[in-house]
Design a protein that fits this description.
23% helix; Peptidase_S78_dom; peptidase activity; viral release from host cell; alpha+beta; 9-stranded mixed beta sheet
């Protein structure tokens, strides 16, 4: 089976700290993405356990390019909410420095997982329910597929980000209703 990618905007809890440290959710359980897929709780458990047993780690890549590692995920785990990642952009790597600058400027706000589907089924809504995934990498990307999660700029609180996103959504709704 081919490697698949699942895009997710950074969660509002994700921030760049000290220019290189990032953390947040790369995947949210139960959320339907733009491709009609829903990741179920526990989908990553076997893969993460296997990686740990083999002494391997999930890779941090730039735009899914295996020739461009940009950092290290120090922690990758499932919790009640989704797939939590915490790591460091490498400032000794040119793309790592670029990624930190782009995140801080708001030009990049997405995470995407690279994986292989092990088990999936259609749910009663016609969505593909992903129940077991083999996780290979988590990339920083331009275009995420799960728009409900996003990155907060350095110095911006999650509440500020949520309020700004709500204001933008309301303005778009107003424009649609007015026929703009």
């Amino acid at each position: 089976m081919d490697l698949e990618h699942k895009f997710c905007r950074f969660d509002s809890d994700v921030q760049v700290i000290e220019g290189t440290k990032i953390e947040g959710y790369a995947s949210l359980f139960g959320a339907c993405d733009q491709g009609g897929d829903v990741v179920s709780k526990g989908a990553y458990a076997r893969s993460l356990a296997r990686l740990g047993q083999e002494g391997r780690a999930v890779k941090m890549l730039w735009q899914h390019d295996p020739a461009q590692p940009i950092g290290i995920w120090d922690e990758v785990r499932e919790d009640e909410r989704g797939l939590y990642v915490k790591g460091r952009l490498l400032d000794s790597v040119e793309k790592g420095r670029e990624a930190a600058a782009l995140i801080e400027a708001g030009a990049i706000d997405g995470l995407s997982i690279g994986y292989r589907t092990v088990k999936a089924a259609k749910n009663d809504k016609g969505q593909r329910l992903l129940t077991e995934l083999e996780l290979w990498e988590v990339s920083l990307v331009t275009f995420p597929m799960l728009p409900s999660a996003r990155v907060a700029s350095k110095g911006e609180t999650p509440d500020d980000a949520a309020l700004r996103e709500l204001a933008e959504a309301l303005e778009g709704l107003r424009a649609n209703l007015a026929g703009d």
